[in-house]
């Protein structure tokens, strides 16, 4: 493989790493639940959230690239100590959500092979760990994300055809909705670019040496493409669920995405759900572990030298917690609250850094991108604080 092909492979790998990090068990559940609530009008929510996702991700990836630093180092340069705070938030949120991702992978194997979710979780964790023990771990991670990302999209597309959604109504309501759910918009944005997710691809490009002002065009295209891949999966899942809902069928509240696949395509659909759930969960395990650890590896040479083993430990701990106590509700509540606060914090830091010459040199950040990012910061900060005020008291009851 020549240098140009290698560079293109990394760019595509970063796209799918970020996209598949976003497409996890929570992504599948959120999309189907909101479709059941909003029907065709959920198309408008998806459309608006895509625009906000692009505004957040394009800002973050560009600043990481032009500063040639990871997010935590940029934050420490903006305000000493802030990078450690950001890293702590990401680590805690990433670890808690990884417990859920491991559980989702176990559920996928349970549907496919009938093995217990705990056994499925152990097998899935071994597969994820093996990726990071390979000598060319970066390339293996890229290929893994690409392959399973394409599998998820292809299988969900098949279910869309079997569900036969009213495409005309979906198209009209995507522009002229009957109702707008503000919380749904913020939930989708947080679920796509919140927490560690948006940094997965940005840090991957930096690790692969794609950085500096000369790379900004490629970086921006990759950032937008990653949102495109995640959004394509969101749209297909929405159409599949809408096809089921439009027929007057009721989704199983205990497992909404599974019931979409089963109601649309019968028992074959349920097996396909097992594949999609496992692919979504295991790629999120890989993306969460890689990105969460990337937030601490610059703090000390030892952490950088042994970062792959720390990633393995991260996955191991997530699996042990799931097997021993399941998905601890209070920890997940806290992680969800922190996740809602990470995006406005991290994006706000990036927007400040974009105008610090000691960080970005003579680079001039586009004003429209700054304005776009500021809107996302304000929106997510408001809803993040609101969510924290509602949920944090539950942790002490």
Write up this protein:
- The chain is built from 17 helices and no strands.
- Helix content is 82%, strand content 0%.
- It has one domain (7-396): Amino acid/polyamine transporter I, CATH 1.20.1740.10.
- It is globular, with a radius of gyration of 20 Å.
- By secondary structure, it is an all-alpha fold.
- α5 runs antiparallel to α12.
- The chain has helices at 3-22, 25-38, 42-67, 71-78, 82-113, 117-133, 137-163, 167-175, 182-193, 197-207, 216-246, 256-294, 301-305, 307-325, 329-353, 357-360, 367-391.
- The model has no long low-confidence stretch (mean pLDDT 88).
List keywords for this structure.
397 residues; 17 helices; globular
Number of helices: 17
What's the CATH first level?
Mainly Alpha
- Counting DSSP E segments of at least 2 residues, the number of strands comes to 0
The biggest beta sheet reads: none
Task: Spell the H/E element sequence.
Answer: HHHHHHHHHHHHHHHHH
CATH architecture: Up-down Bundle
Distance between the termini: 58 Å
Low-confidence stretches: none
The proportion of residues forming helix, as a percent range, comes to over 70%
Count of individual domains = 1
> What class would the helix/strand composition place it in?
mainly alpha
Strand content: under 5%
Please tell me what the overall shape is.
globular
* CATH topology grouping: Amino acid/polyamine transporter I
CATH superfamily: Amino acid/polyamine transporter I
